[in-house]
Amino acid sequence: MTRAGLPLVNVACCAPLVREPLDADAATDLAQTLKAIADPARLRLLSLIAAHEGGEACVCDLTEPLGLTQPTVSHHLKVLVDAGLLHRDKRGVWAYFTLVPGALDSLANVLSSRGMAVPAG
Amino acid sequence: MTRAGLPLVNVACCAPLVREPLDADAATDLAQTLKAIADPARLRLLSLIAAHEGGEACVCDLTEPLGLTQPTVSHHLKVLVDAGLLHRDKRGVWAYFTLVPGALDSLANVLSSRGMAVPAG
DNA sequence: TCCTGACATAGACAAACATCGATGTCCTGC
DNA sequence: GCAGGACATCGATGTTTGTCTATGTCAGGA
């Protein structure tokens, strides 16, 4: 069973990775988020959604450029939503996906040796 | 010679993920590097090595804090070296590992919505 | 030369994962 | 109410991956 109703994004737990040793829990947490984006299909999904007009896209916009079936794309999108990287907005029959603002930036912050300012728009 | 006979390790291939759609090849490439760090043990290895005195550590320094066997740690280190994130320096009987300068920062750059200056000067 | 200690490699195994076809759920139009 | 379309979920399957034990390699000392 998948953890439904994620509490929130473990997306960027803490201090930069290289500043101090991660404890086991923090490492597991961060790894889980990284696993979410460590997949070609999901990277392309993030990229396609970001580049799509209005910064949002529905499943039907995404299956064709990826060359994957609708259930597979839906699965990948769920992984990204669960990881706190995508936001899902169901409007009528369609489900529109957008990037969660700052999520990827927070992740980048943890990897970077130096904390950086979030561009904020 | 190339490090470890690896073809190459484009740790950070290109433009920020959210700027334009990734093509399939670039996505596969980036995903491979992300997979290398999308593991709790390997995240802790990076962290432990960075925090170790002199910024370097040998295998014997790393097995105990991780609670994994020596071959498993050796395996994880190899994955990180192959991904271009760690550098291995064999001195006598010991193998010392250090972070490849800028590698994680480059990765962070790709994830970040905005390119940032690499601190390593 | 042989032995010991540090590390790498090989092989095996179980868990996790990506993908698919089939099916279920929900909204909209007739 | 009924049909159709968009999306989610289910169950199955082949592949990848993390971990172990056993073994190989190599340097340094007795």
Q: What's the gist of this structure?
A:
The first copy, chain A, is α+β, with helices and mostly antiparallel strands. The first copy, chain A, has 5 helices and 3 strands, in the order ααβααββα.
Q: Can you tag this structure with a few keywords?
A:
homodimer; alpha+beta; DNA-binding; 3 strands; 5 helices; elongated; 46% helix; 12% strand; 121 residues; 3-stranded antiparallel beta sheet
Give an account of the 3D structure.
The structure is a homodimer of 121-residue chains. With 121 residues, chain A is an alpha+beta fold. The first copy, chain A, has five helices and three strands, in the order H-H-E-H-H-E-E-H. The first copy, chain A, has helices at residues 24-37, 40-51, 59-66, 70-82, 103-111; strands spanning 56-58, 86-91, 94-99. Chain A has a three-stranded antiparallel sheet with strand order 1-3-2. In chain A, a hairpin with a 2-residue loop joins strand 2 and strand 3. The longest helix of chain A is centred in the first third of the chain and has 14 residues, at 24-37. Chain A is elongated, with a radius of gyration of 15 Å. Mean pLDDT of chain A is 86; it is low at 1-9. The interface between A and B is large, with 39 and 40 residues.
